[in-house]
Amino acid sequence: MATTRSLTFAATSRDFVTTLNKRVNDYFKTHDISRHANIEMAIKTIFMFGLYFGPYFLVITGVVTDMAWQIGLVIIMGLGLAGIGLSVMHDANHGAYSKRQWVNTTIGYSLNLIGANAFNWKIQHNMLHHSYTNVHEEDEDISPRGVLRLSPHSEWRYMHQFQFIYAWFLYGLMTLVWMVAKDFVRIIRYHKNGLARKSNADIKEEWMILLGTKILYVGYIFALPVWLTDLYWWQVLIGIFIMQYIAGFILAIIFQPAHVIEGTEYPLPDENRMLENNWAVHQLLTTTNFATTSRWFSWYVGGLNFQIEHHLFPNICHVHYRNIAQIVKDTALDFGLPYHCKKTFWEAIASHARLLKQLGKRPAPFTTPLTSDNPVKLY
Questions:
Q1: How far apart are CA 378 and CA 362, in angstroms?
Q2: pTM
Q3: Cys-Cys link to 248, which of 38, 101, 174, 192 (CB 3.0-4.6 A)?
Q4: How far is CA 226 from the centre of its chain?
């Protein structure tokens, strides 16, 4: 579990950071374009919400009553749900959608509209994952989670040797677990460990928002279909499960290969809680791009296949990642730094699967303490 005492990063490679920021800033200045959303992003936002709510209204208004067609619409809703998470709320909750904070906040609450919670997400994702990527007990994306072992520093259990098989089935449960359990566990945890206070949150207000939006979600996704259609309650629950499972699986297989993949590092801080590299270099060492030549894929996943660019510039809207990627790559190579990239999505998935299998093996006893001077690198 993340601690209240923050880690620090070493003051290294300052020239790289300065040069990279200058080159990226020059790109936007030279082309006279905003770092935020453009017309492409606006169209995508409308499309993703339409993909989610369009099928929903066709069902509850009785336009579509055939069961087979309804299942098809539920599948489409799952695609839309994942699309909102990947392409819309993600940018907004990073403050990248608009230069106006109220716009980011409003669109960011679309996460609450689809069943999760923006407050928890910002702490877990922005404060912890983006700050301490792949750091044991700090990055909750890889922290010990029982049935999955996603870090070489996590406790090994006998079941983990089979995780390369069963992990794929569990990935689909991701959003369901968020909605039903994790949101409640996390808001309590972030209150107790001080992260809520660190983010200047009114915890009572956040509890009201969490409970209120959960009730709203249950109301429109479950109660209204039961009330307005001929569907039985259990049929509606099955539909919700299918939709959430599809969305959860898509989200998981996009996020996991970005960091839990062969070639990325899992650095540990030293006794003074300092990591050996500066923050920007840390992101290069712990992050991987994939399938960057596929425009349709990049469009749907919100540019998150350009994960390096996203981690280095989370406040830039993802529609610009393709255009700054070469700048980032060239700058990294100019300074002798790595720029991890898998050519295709399937190559990234295969590499993730191999690492799941490797992490599932019983670890040999370490003879040298794991410190920042002796980080684990898996290939």
A1: 15
A2: 0.92
A3: 174
A4: 32
Tell me the pairing of strands 265-266 and 376-377: antiparallel
Which is more confidently placed, 379 or 119? 119
* Helices (H), ranges, 157-288: 163-171, 174-177, 183-192, 195-198, 203-218, 224-228, 233-259, 279-286
Biggest distance spanned by C-alpha atoms of the chain: 66
Domains of the chain: which residue ranges?
8-362+370-377
pLDDT tens digits along 133-151: 999 999 999 986 689 999 9
305 neighbors 289 (Cβ within 8 angstroms): yes
Which of the 8 DSSP states describes residue 287? -
Q: What is the mean pLDDT of residues 236-263?
A: 97
Residues in CB range of 71: below 8 A, 6 or more apart: 239, 242
DSSP string for residues in 195-226: HHHHTT--HHHHHHHHHHHHHHHHIIIIIHHH
Distance in angstroms (rounded) separating the CA atoms of residues 217 and 35: 32
Distances (CA, A) of 374 to 62, 267, 366, 371: 62, 8, 11, 5
